[in-house]
Specification:
Order of helices and strands: EHEHEHEEHEEEHEHHEEHHHH
Strand content: 15-25%
Distance between the termini: 50 Å
Largest sheet: 5 strands, mixed
Radius of gyration: 20 Å
Oligomer: single chain
Strand order of the largest sheet: 3-2-1-4-9
């Protein structure tokens, strides 16, 4: 397969990390790539970096675009702008503080199946956990209840531009967990996704830039997604989401377990606790 793949990088004041991300796309074994960089109103250092790399990018890529937003507009606006400008049959994203291994695009496009919403693999986190992924071709089918429970996909997938735009891209009202929101929309409309166990995406959790999401922001993000999609959730999935919400609010794990995981004979007590807890939460 030699279809054009559009890679969208959104960035804000991370020129050193951005260069690493760009060079990881330059180094891809897959040839036919379009690279689009959306600068969310960074300082002048980002534009200066792009100018030093422009000749190399224009030589390497089938199409190279750099656009700077007129004001700081957020990641969802920037991503949607990038995907709207893209011309590739296939699209994928790359955060400016992460990077790809050279075989990523080749591996994913060769495994793309039109009968599924998207294809992805397992991320490797660059932190002190030192987690490694098996280098094999095992795969998992990601269904609706899987992604409604938790973001088991990661932060990037490969899909078609038609499918991504078909679900409206990234929702402006979702400020956190926006990746998971899009994966949910894709699965709702186009069916399950495929996730392979090998890893070609490096997620950098060690750099000095701020990547920490506070408990309050996590709570607000999970709460928004819970109410947006709870009609599609099974009873178990709803319980898992409520468990997450309560944990972000500092509820004791033993109390949450009794509330959400107890035996059926304790159902009256669980419902009483549930009503009281939800009143406190919402």
């Amino acid at each position: 397969m030699n279809e054009l793949i559009s890679v969208i990088i959104t960035t804000y004041n991370r020129e050193v990390l951005l260069e690493r991300a760009i060079r990881s796309v330059i180094a891809q074994s897959y040839a036919n790539i379009e690279l689009i960089i959306i600068d969310d109103f960074s300082n002048e250092k980002t534009a200066q970096l792009i100018e030093t790399l422009r000749s190399e990018c224009e030589s390497r890529f089938a199409r190279f675009i750099y656009k700077r937003n007129e004001k700081n507009s957020g990641s969802n606006f920037s991503r949607n702008r990038g995907y709207a400008l893209s011309q590739g049959v296939f699209v994928t994203g790359l955060d400016d503080d992460d990077y790809f291994l050279p075989e990523r695009l080749s591996k994913l496009i060769s495994r793309y199946d039109e009968n599924y919403a998207f294809v992805t693999d397992t991320i490797t986190r660059l932190d002190k956990t030192d987690r490694t992924c098996p280098d094999n071709n095992n795969k998992r089918i990601i269904g609706l209840q899987d992604i409604l429970c938790e973001n088991v996909v990661g932060n990037q997938v490969l899909t078609t531009k038609e499918k991504l735009l078909g679900v409206g891209g990234f929702s402006p009202e979702i400020k956190q967990q926006q990746d998971r929101d899009v994966w949910i929309k894709l699965i709702l409309k186009y069916g399950p996704g495929i996730k392979y166990s090998f890893s070609t995406a490096m997620v950098d959790a060690e750099h000095g830039s701020n990547r920490i999401t506070s408990q309050v922001k996590k709570y607000n993000a999970y709460r928004k997604l819970y109410f947006k999609y709870r009609e599609y959730m099974s009873e178990v999935t709803r319980s898992n989401n409520l468990f997450q919400l309560m944990s972000f609010r500092g509820f004791n794990s033993k109390r949450m377990y009794c509330l959400l995981r107890g035996h059926k004979k304790d159902s009256k007590l669980r419902m009483k606790l549930l009503r009281r807890t939800l009143k406190e939460l919402f």
